[in-house]
Design goal:
Order of helices and strands: EEEHEHEEEEHHEHHEEEEHEEEE
Largest sheet: 9 strands, mixed
Helix content: 10-25%
Radius of gyration: 19 Å
Number of strands: 17
Structural class: alpha+beta
Number of helices: 7
Strand order of the largest sheet: 1-2-3-4-15-7-17-6-5
Bound molecules: N-oxalylglycine, manganese (II) ion
Length: 296
């Protein structure tokens, strides 16, 4: 447990996650508290809060302290009518859970979003946890030879790898087809490096997602598939993870640059309803002074 002055942060596992207590998100927090939450987020990749009975507007207002929010579009997820940045992830008997895949929000975009903040609105009695993986710890856990091999390699990330798959068939039904098609057209396959330097912490981390990363550029397809298979399994090791059990009014705030997440789909046909906003850019983080990317 670390006392930051305004807040208390308790680590969840060795490499990832912290529970922040002593904070009431229904109030307007002072700048130091916001900065401390951001500090913990940078160190732990995901922070959790309990018992935050806040309105969608308060949820969005809190998120906006860290950077501009993405306006929500109705496509794979629903949108809350009166708060235009709020997406609703709803699962029930007719809509079985289908976010049980490791991903980073927006990895299929040219400019992926920095952060996501998810609030439990209605959660099942058991099940429906979310798993978070540290892409920094996963990188650190690679051999020197593998780190050397991956340096400088990029991979293609494609919205349609996931959203064109059978798991997402229902997204394309009826009048949602046009919305999904617009998302597809706005997000053609994009290249991202497989290893990135975090702009705030200066740490190196992997950047890939089984759901969206299709192939490594500049290597034979067979080699690409073997390398990606290895990396997909590597980032899924429990040693790099924490697992969050939701309660109503629990909140998770994660850094998409440093963590993957996976929504465990073990609660159908129970209802699970979550509200989410995404923060486009990190306006609090000061870019780290780093020599990591410069030649020795
Ligand atoms: C998300 C997401 C995970 C969950 O909000 O981006 O993937 O546990 N949700 O609902
Ligand atoms: Mn997600």
């Amino acid at each position: 447990m670390k006392d930051y002055g305004k807040i208390t942060a308790t680590p969840v596992t060795t490499f990832v996650g912290a529970v922040i207590s002593d904070v009431d998100l229904s109030t307007t927090l002072d700048d130091q508290t916001i900065a401390e939450i951001h500090d913990v987020l940078m160190e732990r990749h995901v922070v959790f809060f309990r018992d935050q009975a806040i309105t969608p507007q308060q949820h969005a207002d809190f998120a906006r302290r860290f950077g501009p929010l993405r306006k929500a579009r109705r496509a794979a997820f629903e949108v809350l009518d009166d708060v235009s940045e709020m997406q609703v992830l709803i699962n029930d008997r007719e809509r079985p859970p289908n976010v049980n895949h490791y991903h980073s929000d927006g990895i299929f975009r040219t400019n992926p979003e920095f952060g996501s903040i998810l609030l439990g609105v209605e959660v099942p009695i058991a099940g429906g946890d979310t798993i978070f993986t540290s892409l920094a710890a996963a990188y650190d856990g690679l051999s020197d030879g593998m780190k050397e091999y991956l340096a400088g390699l990029s991979a293609v990330n494609d919205f349609m790898k996931l959203h064109g798959s059978p798991a997402k068939t229902r997204s394309w039904k009826g009048d949602n087809f046009a919305r999904m098609d617009a998302m597809r057209q706005d997000n053609p396959p994009v290249e991202h490096p497989l290893v990135k330097v975090h702009p705030v912490t200066g740490r190196k981390h992997l950047y890939l997602s089984e759901s969206f990363t299709t192939h490594v550029i500049g290597v034979d397809l067979e080699e690409s598939q073997r390398v990606l298979d290895f990396l997909f399994r590597h980032v899924a090791k429990p040693e790099y993870q924490c697992r969050f059990a939701w309660q109503r009014h629990s909140m998770a705030f994660w850094d998409n640059r440093a963590a993957l997440h996976y929504a465990v789909a073990d609660y159908w046909p129970a209802v699970r309803r979550m509200n989410r906003v995404t923060i486009v850019t990190d306006e609090i983080g000061t870019p780290a002074v780093t020599t990591l990317s410069k030649p020795a």
